[in-house]
Design a protein that fits this description.
Helix content: 25-40%
Number of helices: 3
Order of helices and strands: HEEHH
Strand order of the largest sheet: 1-2
Number of strands: 2
Radius of gyration: 24 Å
Structural class: mainly alpha
Strand content: 5-15%
Distance between the termini: 88 Å
């Protein structure tokens, strides 16, 4: 028994698109382009640009993608740096914030402890 022939661009009995009907990216009726949420933009980047190779900052194994201009919707390859977690936190300024919080806590503990 052979499967029924379905013309490309139509749906089969289960409602699936037939092979040959490419519904990816701009061809999809629900495509939003750059007007997606930051989370959707990050997910799109994960699919398009897998992480491979060393960190561009220190040479360790890369684990994160960093948007150089801070715009998570700008997924141009020239705007993406592959970094380890530490270099990514340093590039985003998160490492400096953590250091500042630690310094504040230690000053506070010395004040409270010295009563």
């Amino acid at each position: 028994m052979t499967a029924p022939t379905i013309k490309p661009g139509t749906r089969d009995a289960l409602g699936r698109f037939a092979p040959g009907n490419d519904q990816r990216l701009e061809k999809n009726g629900h495509w939003k382009g750059d007007a997606v949420s930051p989370e959707a933009a990050r997910d799109r980047l994960k699919r398009r640009m897998p992480i491979h190779g060393p960190c561009e900052g220190c040479g360790a194994k890369a684990s994160d993608r960093h948007h150089k201009d801070g715009n998570t919707r700008n997924n141009d390859p020239s705007n993406i740096a592959q970094l380890c977690r530490r270099c990514h936190m340093k590039a985003d300024g998160r490492l400096a914030k953590i250091a500042a919080m630690d310094a504040w806590r230690s000053r506070r503990e010395r004040k409270v402890g010295g009563r």
